[in-house]
Design goal:
Elements: E1 5-11, E2 16-23, E3 34-42, H1 46-53, H2 58-77, E4 82-87, H3 89-93, H4 97-108, E5 112-114, H5 117-125, E6 138-144, E7 149-155, E8 158-165, H6 169-173, H7 179-195, E9 199-204, H8 206-214, E10 224-226, H9 227-237, H10 242-249, H11 253-256, H12 259-273, E11 277-279, H13 285-301
Parallel strand pairs: 1-4, 4-5, 6-9, 9-11
Antiparallel strand pairs: 1-2, 2-3, 6-7, 7-8, 10-11
Helix pairs in contact: 2-4, 5-13, 8-12, 9-12
Length: about 300
């Protein structure tokens, strides 16, 4: 059977990503192996409009359509067999979100789904496929985005619960996170602690990946990020200006501002569940979208 090529578009609150992967030729009947062909990230920062004004500005809407046209051409060049495009927190909240997606469909032919927070959480859960499954122990997937944070609790390989909270980096920077969301997050995590012991956190998203790269950790073979080191980095970076973070740590502008609220969210989760480390496998929502497409294809042929 011909190896298929998959593509995912993730329209997030901070950036819009295109990921293309191809099935490896020797994966029939074995653990999935997908080779990354292309990853593009463009920081349109839709959430800064939406969370402060309630809608995407005309300029950013135009840029989103232009970007989707460019992505469509790349999808054709790479001869993609299966595509899924998803829009998350910012487009969920944007009053003009449905109209923008209709325009994208008309001008590019790409059908974009505005997915609920719970569906986003389940997409993140699909990332466990690339790690060969998590068959033993209790794991909490934590995906921190611009508009929301997705949590998935997995115990002995079984998805127990998925939750999405309107707590994200861009929402925090624009002062749009309600205290009730923090309270609900705390209650959810307290419930986990009462039922499960020794919960291991798996972190995803560009911010935790960047923090992990900056970490002073000698042994990175197991992608293990000590929470104590994350705390040290947080308290080192927080007093600095965005310009200083860019200059001293090689960050882009669109990373240097959101990295502080991201670190705070991860530290909040880790301290509440008593985790001493975070596993950082450098995969995210777009990977989960492709894993879901791949899994669906495998189930059809099994």
């Amino acid at each position: 059977m011909k190896e298929k090529t998959y593509a995912a578009i993730d329209i997030g609150s901070n950036a819009v990503r295109l990921l293309i992967k191809r099935e490896e030729s020797d994966t029939a009947g074995t653990t999935p192996a997908l080779k990354k062909l292309l990853l593009l990230r463009v920081p349109l920062r839709l959430g800064f409009d939406v969370f402060s004004k309630g809608e995407v500005s005309a300029k950013k809407a135009d840029n989103l359509v232009r970007l989707m046209k460019a992505y469509r051409q790349l999808i054709r060049i790479y001869e993609v067999d299966s595509l899924r495009a998803c829009a998350t927190s910012a487009m969920r909240d944007a009053a003009n979100g449905p109209d923008i997606l209709k325009r994208i469909r008309k001008e590019t032919g790409i059908e974009v789904e505005i997915i609920a927070g719970e569906e986003e959480a389940r997409i993140v859960y699909d990332n466990h496929i690339e790690r060969g499954g998590l068959d033993y122990g209790s794991y909490l997937y934590v995906d921190v985005g611009g508009g929301s944070t997705e949590l998935n609790l997995i115990d002995n390989g079984t998805l127990i619960e998925s939750r999405s909270f309107n707590i994200g980096t861009v929402r925090m920077l624009t002062g749009r996170v309600r205290q009730s969301e923090w309270d609900e997050l705390h209650d959810f995590l307290a419930g986990i602690v009462s039922r499960f012991q020794d919960v291991t956190i798996i972190g995803s998203g560009g911010n935790i990946n960047k923090l992990y790269k900056l970490a002073d950790v000698k042994d990175k073979e197991n992608d293990s990020f000590p929470v104590s080191e994350l705390s040290r980095l947080y308290h080192t970076l927080r007093p600095l200006s965005v310009a200083q973070r860019m200059e001293h740590y090689g960050m882009r502008n669109d990373r240097a501002d959101v990295i502080i609220p991201a670190a705070y969210i991860f530290l909040t989760v880790a301290s509440t569940v008593g985790a001493e480390k975070i596993i950082v496998p450098t995969i995210g929502v777009a990977d989960g979208i492709i894993d879901g497409l791949y899994l669906s294809d495998r189930e059809k042929h099994d």
